[in-house]
Specification:
- This protein folds into four domains: 3-145, Resolvase, N-terminal catalytic domain (Rossmann fold, 3-Layer(aba) Sandwich), CATH 3.40.50; 167-307, Alpha-Beta Complex (Hect, E3 ligase catalytic domain fold); 329-380, no CATH class; 393-428.
- The relative contact order is 0.05.
- Helix 5 runs antiparallel to helix 6 and helix 7 packs across helix 10 (292-307).
- The chain is of the alpha/beta class.
- It is 48% helix and 15% strand.
- It starts with a helix and ends with a helix.
- Residues 309-318 have low confidence and may be disordered.
- The chain is extended, with a radius of gyration of 36 Å.
- It has helices spanning 3-6, 22-39, 62-72, 84-87, 91-103, 122-155, 189-203, 208-217, 230-234, 292-307, 349-354, 366-381, 384-429, 433-446, 451-465, and strands spanning 8-14, 42-49, 78-81, 107-110, 167-174, 180-187, 252-255, 258-262, 269-273, 280-283, 329-330, 337-340, 345-348, 363-365.
- The strands form five sheets. The chain has a four-stranded parallel β-sheet with strand order 2-1-3-4, sandwiched between helices. Strands 11-12-13-14 form a four-stranded antiparallel β-sheet.
Length: 469
């Protein structure tokens, strides 16, 4: 490793909440560059992630992914962080990333927490583990405190979740400085009329697709000013999501119905339902939009759709279709995904779910389209130029792997040689163990004996030690 490369450093910075901004990245970068100047390091690049939680895997962040790619490419030898919590607030993730980087000879320096890869002994590992545990505990404590605060707001009669379609959030109370301390919901008359229309049409037998198409044809804006689709209307009866399943429209507000946990294998957040005994249910008659009769008709029809086909093998609820090209092709008219719209055709997902107002749609026979694309891929992949290119890249990868292994072997050999030399010097300075033991035995034998006996014994021992005797 050349001196120039040995002093090359990257800075990684991250902030996670909306209470921070770009200045946080600038502050972290400034602190790291100051440390780099003291150590004589040359900062050649800065990688950063804005408004991204530390619990998200490093490889799933734009800046984190670029950092790992640069590390694998050997572009730097030192990584500067404000602290290990900037890298990750997950103990396992932090340990994995740190070990990967340090295995490749990259020195990691935490400016504020004092971590340094060059610290010898188990103290470095102990410090890293303690810091990782503290950083992960911070996330858990923050979640608990947030839930406690939300429960307190509900107990005081305020609304804590985002407004559903048909409602808007208004300030309900302020403190002495005029700052809002609580919010409440109120009905938006124009949107409430659309909600009643959806319930009436579904109760009369119209499908969610036809209802969504009609709303988009009438240029009615959907939730968050988007377009209407099947998922917005139907959602999930079990989760109480979707306009047709949300009990707030009959004046019942439910909080703490579910919570999110991270799957340790996929690192994705998964929604889990809480026991019904933990739900917080409040009756809010002033928020009612649909009548009991409208609600009952919708419930009866949804119950029939959910139960239809039991015992016959028929599934009415939507299911993911396993198709060769589904989601891999884009619509040439709207840019949306092309999916299997039925058993025999591919088509635009936007046209299917949102209607012709959003996209006129495209359509192609499944068998023919799959055959043509497979033939095209086959011709491209097995061409002489591509085979030669793939072979060359494979050889480059193998050569780089062998080079890295050889460098790692030499580095380990140097460390072993250094350790052996230190051990030899330490042994040379240590007094002879056998001489010390002999002296101790002699003193023990002389204890309590007359001086004449000791003199005779000493002369006999000296004669025995002379060469040739």
């Amino acid at each position: 490793m050349t001196n120039a490369h040995a002093s090359s450093a990257f800075v990684y910075a991250r902030y996670s909440t909306d209470q921070q901004n770009q200045t946080s990245i600038d502050d972290q970068t400034r602190v790291c560059k100051k440390k780099a100047a003291l150590l004589g390091l040359n900062v050649i690049a800065v990688r950063a992630d804005e408004a991204i939680s530390g619990s998200l895997p490093v490889a799933a962040r734009p800046g984190g992914k670029a950092l790992l790619e640069d590390a694998l490419a050997g572009k730097f030898s030192v990584l500067l962080l404000e602290g290990l919590d900037r890298l990750s607030r997950d103990l396992v993730e932090q340990e994995t990333i740190v070990r990967r980087l340090e295995h490749r000879g990259i020195r990691i320096i935490g400016v504020s927490d004092g971590y340094d890869s060059e610290t010898d002994g188990s103290s470095r590992q102990l410090m890293r583990g303690v810091r990782g545990l503290i950083n992960e505990t911070y996330i858990t404590d923050l979640s608990s405190k947030t839930r406690r605060g939300m429960a307190g707001q509900i107990a005081r009669g305020f609304h804590v979740a985002g407004p559903s379609y048909g409602y808007r959030s208004q300030v309900a109370a302020t403190n002495g400085k005029g700052e809002p301390i609580g919010y409440k919901l109120e009905i938006v008359p124009e949107e409430a009329a659309i909600v009643r229309r959806i319930y009436d049409e579904f109760g009369k037998g119209l499908s969610c697709q036809k209802i969504a198409h009609g709303l988009n044809d009438d240029f009615i804006k959907g939730p968050r000013s988007g377009t209407w689709g099947v998922s917005v209307l139907y959602g999930s009866p079990r989760k109480g999501s979707g306009i047709l399943n949300n009990e707030i429209y009959v004046g019942k507000v439910i909080w703490n119905r579910s919570h999110w946990v991270k799957d340790p294998d996929t690192h994705k957040r998964v929604r889990l339902d809480r026991p019904k005994s933990e739900w917080v249910i409040e009756e809010k008659p002033d928020l009612r939009i649909v009548s009991d009769e409208q609600w009952a008709k919708v419930r009866e029809r949804i119950g029939g759709l959910e139960n239809r086909g039991k015992g016959t093998g028929t599934k009415v609820t939507p299911r993911r279709k396993n198709t060769l090209l589904g989601g891999l092709i884009k619509c040439g008219k709207c840019g949306g995904a092309v999916i299997a719209v039925d058993a025999h055709s591919y088509g635009c997902a936007n046209a299917k779910n949102h209607g012709p107002t959003v996209c006129a749609g495209v359509r192609a026979p499944r068998a023919e389209l799959e055959r043509k694309i497979i033939a095209c891929l086959r011709d491209e992949l097995v061409s002489h130029a591509n085979v030669a290119e793939i072979t060359s890249e494979a050889h480059d990868i193998v050569r780089k792997y062998i080079k890295d292994m050889e460098s790692d072997r030499k580095r380990r050999a140097r460390r072993l040689t250094t350790a052996s030399r230190r051990a030899s010097r330490s042994t040379a300075r240590r007094p002879s163990r056998s001489r010390s033991v002999t002296t101790a035995l002699r003193l023990f034998r002389y204890r309590g004996k007359p001086s004449s006996w000791r003199s005779t014994e000493r002369r006999s021992w000296q004669l025995a030690m002379k060469p040739g005797t």
